[in-house]
Every structure is written in C-alpha cells, then in structure tokens.
Amino acid sequence: QVSLVESGGGSVQAGGSLSVSCVVSGDALSTYHMGWFRQVAGKERELIAAISTGREFPYYHDSAKGRFTISRDNAKNTVFLQMSSLKHEDTAVYYCAADLPRQGPLWARFIHGNMDYWGKGTQVTVSS
After folding, report:
1. What percent of the residues of the chain are helix, what percent strand, and what percent coil, each to the nearest 5?
2. pLDDT exceeds cutoff 90 at 55
3. What pairs with residue 7 in β-bridges?
4. Looking at the chain, which runs of residues are DSSP E strands?
5. Looking at the predicted structure, is the pLDDT value of residue 57 above 90?
6. What is the phi/psi pair of residue 10, to 5°?
7. pLDDT single digits (tens) 61-110
8. Residue 118: which residues within 8 A CB-CB, separation 6 or more?
9. Residue 29: strand, helix, or coil
10. Which class for 99: exposed (0-12), middle (13-18), buried (19 or more C-beta within 10 A)?
11. pLDDT-based confidence at 10, cuts 50/70/90?
C-alpha cells in the first residue's frame, strides 16, 4: 500500500521561507507524477505545483510562480516544495499527492484533484 507523509509545516512570518517534504513509501517514487495541493478551511483544495516522473514541464499555480519550487529526489523517495516570499494568503494545509502516468494531457487529473494517493497534510501558517 502506498503511503505519503508530509512534514516541515509550521509558522513563519510574511516574507520568510519554508520547505515542506513528502516521503513516499510502499512503492518507488519514480513511478509517479507528484503534486502539492493546498486547502484553506471552507475552500476547495487547489493545485499549487506538480512535477512529472521525468521532471519536465513542471506546473505552478499563478500564485506560486517565482516563489515556490517543486523538486524530487527519487533515491530518497521524497518530494519537496520550497516556498519563499511567503504571504499571509499562503496559509493553508498543504497536501502531497501521487498519480500514475496516464494517457492524455499531462496535468489534467492534477487540475481536477483526481489523484491516486494523498497524504494527510501539513499546516503552514504565515503571519502578517
């Protein structure tokens, strides 16, 4: 059974930086496209960043472009999201998700949140 566990969340002041990690167990990370989502209470979960098995064509939400970087270390079965210039509106629960490659547009399933596996999330709080 595939399991995803996020870590690294916490509290930071606006303008600061924070990195969150996601360790995948039960299967090889290299098998999956990976994504980071976030959700604010009362709002829909949204895709923030995604990285393919081959690391090509990474996806970033407009709000994350230039500030967030997604990366993966297949040898460590870990995906990272480095966040800088954080804003109060980045406050959310951040979720890691994995999806097996399928035919069709690369990020279609991600954009609709239709993923194979999800982590339980880690809270990121940015104080203004």
Report:
1. 10, 45, 45
2. no
3. 21
4. 3-7, 10-13, 18-25, 33-39, 46-51, 59-60, 68-73, 78-83, 92-99, 117-118, 122-127
5. no
6. 165, -160
7. 999 999 999 999 999 999 999 999 999 999 999 999 999 999 988 898 99
8. 4, 95, 96, 97
9. helix
10. buried
11. very high
